[in-house]
Amino acid sequence: MSKSQLAAAALVRIAIGWHFAYEGLWKVLDFDEWTSAGYLQSADGPGAAMFHWMAANDSVLWIVDIANAWGLLLIGGALMLGCLTRVTALLGIVLLTLYYLAHPPWFATLPGVAEGHYLIVNKNLIELLALGLVVAMPAKPLGLDGLIDMWRRRGESTPGPMETDAPEPLPPRATSRRRMLAGLVGLPVLGGFVMAVLKKTQGYQSQEESQLTAELDAITSPSMTPLVFKTLSDLKGKIPAAKIKGVDFGRVILGGNLMNGFAHARDLIYVSDLIKSYHEEWRVHQTFRLAEDCGIDTILTNPILAPRIVSYREKQGGKIKFISQCKGKTEKDLLKVIQYSIDQGATAVYIQGMTADDYVRNGHFDWIAKALEVIRDAGLPAGIGGHYIDTIKGCVREGIEPDYWVKTLHHHGYWSSDLENQHDNIWCEDPQQTIEFMETLPEPWIAYKVLAAGAIHPKDGFRYAFENGADFLCVGMYDFQVVEDANIALNILGAKDKLNRRRPWCA
Fold first, then answer.
1. Any residues with CB less than 8 A from the CB of 358 and at least 6 apart, and which?
2. Is 317 left (phi over 0), alpha (psi -120 to 50) or beta?
3. What pTM was computed for the model?
4. Other C-beta atoms lying within 10 Å of the C-beta of residue 301
């Protein structure tokens, strides 16, 4: 093979090794929280029964998790260094084959597990075939295998004078140096890998970067007004937590509408596209991390965001909880979305407000009861949402008891409120009736739309919701609002005895 062909083969090997090692590292670092159970339980390919058995057996699952996490890390490191290349490449092929058979693209019905749209060929199959080439091609010239081979040959005893076959002469010193450099080609990559991981996890910054960023001007607007927002250094404490069905949730919950592009921006038609463009995956992960640091340890969202939550947990080591709002025009549709949420690692699940409103309006209480049963069978807290208080009243009248309620609450004291012409600016039609009826219920209550989609200041909206019976608040916020909103909530919750609240805290 030519030098360029050998270099190309080494580059492919090193890139796959980097991917393996990084995936494995996050699983090892987050081993107390990470598990392959959800992935195995949702397997729908050949041998699905075997994968389901692995997930159902705790001791087997523990072994599978250890083998998966450490296998990825060690195989990846060996591939980067070119050490035992063919053996580790074959082991990598085995792992990728299992991943592929668990979720083959021709069986995929929902996004999330597959990370995208595939037909037969996906990234697992591509890496599997690439490792097949690594096995077939010579690896010694560019990797530790070549260096070890050179040292081994040097250590071989040379024949005596009576032997007729002359030994192969040792390479000249210059050639030895070139072979040594070629053998160590993976070390700079491994060093870069370590530096990248440190930078991503610990915020490592070089001296040059520190000096450059110290000189940057924060002025960003045409009026030359500096963009200044609260950072973690301004945080006054962590949001306190409370329990729903034995699970701890921070009393302020991050709403997912902004990340999904649901802006409720009224007639500003560009805003939804704008905020979707703003919320790239790295920005979403950054917002999750910042929220967790503030004690806002949960996001309530449409399961369309589940892949990014899973990615954050697996790649960033995050532990954010996930309350999934599930909707469906029919019972079958609803149950399908609920199962998807469970498979994607939801911490709690509830029937989305508009869906529950519609079910109650049409008398489908049996659908609601069945959905709660499925959620509880999965061991998760089950809730019911609603925009209208009649939705909550109807469920109570029918004897349906969720583990928690998710109900809108905000006052109408903002200039754009208009009861006669509700152009996407009112979500709690009768706040007083909501307050009075929710006061009679023993279950925890998560209030949402407490800021009327940005029309009410958090200082006002948070206090109004907590004083009038809400146990938790769900609030959409940008990354630059997280710390400030946390401090506002802390000021209110820190003086509970001064809150004009009649309803007992139910969580």
1. 364
2. left
3. 0.58
4. 26
The sign of the torsion formed by the CA atoms of 384, 387, 393, 395 equals negative
Other beta carbons less than 10 A from residue 224's beta carbon = 8
Contacts 24+ apart (CB under 8 A), 267-274: 267/423
User: CB of 383 within 8 A of CB of 404?
Assistant: yes
DSSP 168: P
Helices and strands per DSSP (H, E), number in the chain: 21, 10
CB-CB contact of 82 with 139 (8 Å): yes
Q: Report the C-alpha gap between 131 and 9 in whole angstroms.
A: 10
β-partners of residue 301 are: 324
**pLDDT tens for the chain, residues 1 to 507:** 666 777 777 788 888 888 888 888 878 877 766 778 777 877 778 878 898 888 888 888 889 988 988 999 899 888 888 778 888 889 989 988 998 888 887 754 443 444 556 778 888 889 889 888 888 876 555 666 665 665 566 655 444 444 444 445 545 554 555 555 555 555 565 566 666 655 555 554 444 444 444 444 444 444 444 445 677 788 888 999 999 999 999 999 999 988 887 777 777 778 888 887 888 888 899 999 999 999 999 999 999 999 999 999 988 889 999 999 999 999 999 999 999 999 999 999 999 999 999 999 999 999 999 999 999 999 999 999 999 999 999 999 999 999 999 999 999 888 777 766 666 677 888 999 999 999 999 999 999 999 988 889 999 999 999 999 999 999 999 999 999 999 999 999 886 667 889 999 987
Token pair belonging to 433: 């009736």
Q: How many CA atoms lie within 13 A of 106 on its CB side?
A: 6
